[in-house]
Amino acid sequence: MLFGRRLLPIKKIASNLRRNSSKTLIDDKFTLLTYNLLSPYYMWPQVYTYVPDEYKDWKYRHRLLENELLSRYRADIMCLQELTATDYYQYWEPVIDRDFNYGSKYIAKPPPQYWKREPSDMDGVGIFYNLNKFDYISSSSVYLNDLIGSFDLNELSYLKSKMVKLTDGAGNPTGEQALLEVLRNRNQVGLFVSLKHKDTGTIFVVVNTHLYWKYDEVKLTQCIIIMRRLAKIINTLLVGEHDTTYSKMKVLFAGDLNSPRDSSVVKFLRGEIVKYDNLDIANPLRPYLNRCVFEDVSADLFEHTCYSGKLKGIFDYIWYHNKDFELTKILSGADVSKELRNSNEFGLPNKNHPSDHIPVLGEFKIL
Question: Which residues belong to any copy of the Endonuclease/exonuclease/phosphatase domain (predicted)?
C-alpha cells in the first residue's frame, strides 16, 4: 500500500522474464511515471486556501516528493512537470546520478514578462531514466511558441485569423486575440529523450510536456507542434546508426495535458481529424500512439489525477501503441478520492500527498 494506493495487475502475467532462443533470461518490462510536482511558486494563496500552512511548506512537500520518487515508486522512466531549474540542478540531477545510476534531461520554460523571481525559479519538465535498463541515445527539446517550421502558409493563415476568447483566472471574459499571438505569448515546452532498452534492443522516444492550462485551441495546437517535432526526431533516428526501422521504433508520450478525456487534444491523439477551416489536420504519430492508460483499465480505478480545489479531473496521461507495449500493472488512483472523502478534505496537497496531482504509474511489457 502506498498511502492507500495499490499497484494493480491488469491481467495475470506468467513471469516478468522471458527466454529467447539461447535460453538467456530477458527482462522485457519497465515502469513509467508521469507526475506534476506543483512548483512552490504556483502555490497561489487564493487557490490553496484549504491546505494547512504546514503542508504548503516546500521543505515538507519536498521530503514527501523525495520519498515517493526515490523510495516508493522509483520508476525506470520518470516524466516530471513543474520541476524548477534550481531544484533540478541543485538536487535531482546530482542525487539520481550519484546514488541511483539514473540519467536525466531537463528544459526550463522561458520566464514570462510578469515573472519577478530569479529565472532559475522558473519551472520546466524533466525526464529521468534508469541506466541499468536503458542506454541513452539522444535528446532534444522544443519551445511551443516557436512556430517556425511547424506549420505551412495555409495553416499559419488560419492561426492568424482564428480568434480566441480570452478570460482572466476566474473565467471572466477579457477580450479576444488571434490564436497565433496567444501561442507566441505562451511559454510551454516539450522534451524528447531517445533510449535503447538494453535487454531487448528496442529503441523508443520518450516525450514529456505540460500544456497550457486553458483555451482548447491553444492546447490542441501545442500538441500538434509536439507531434510534428516528434515525427522529425523519429526520421532522424531512422537514418542514424541505430539499426532500426519504422516498425521497430516505439513512442511513449506522457505529461500534464490539462485536458479531460473528451477534449480536442485527446481526440486528436486518438486519431480524429482536426478541422482548421477547410484544412484537415491529422496526427502524424497515429501509427505510434493509439491509446492511453485509462483505456486499458477499469473506469473505477481513476476518478481524477488532479485534485486542485475546485479544479479536478483526469489531466495526466501516458500514451503508447498497443502493438508496441502492453500495460501490465497500474497504480490505482481511486484510493486517493476515497481517502479525501473519508477525511473530509477538499483537495490536495495534504499531509500524505505533496502535490495537487497524483503520479500516474504503470508497468509495461515491450511487445
Answer: 33-357
CB atoms within 10 A of CB 211: 24
What's the whole-number average pLDDT of the chain? 92
Element (H, E) at 192: strand 189-197
Q: Kindly state the cell numbers that stand for 181.
A: 499571438
Tell me the one-letter amino acid at 197.
H
Per DSSP, the three-state class of 270 is helix
pLDDT over 70 for what percent of the chain? 93
> In this structure, what CATH number is given to the domain that contains residue 280?
3.60.10.10
* Distance from the first to the final alpha carbon of the chain: 29
DSSP letter at 70 equals: I
- Residue 9 in any domain: the answer is no
Structural domain contains residue 21: no
pLDDT of residue 185: 95
Total-model pTM: 0.93
Provide the number of structural domains found in the chain: 1
Element (H, E) at 203: strand 203-210
Q: Which domain holds residue 261?
A: 29-366
Burial 43-61 (b: 16+ CB within 10 A, else e): beeebbeebeeebeebeeb
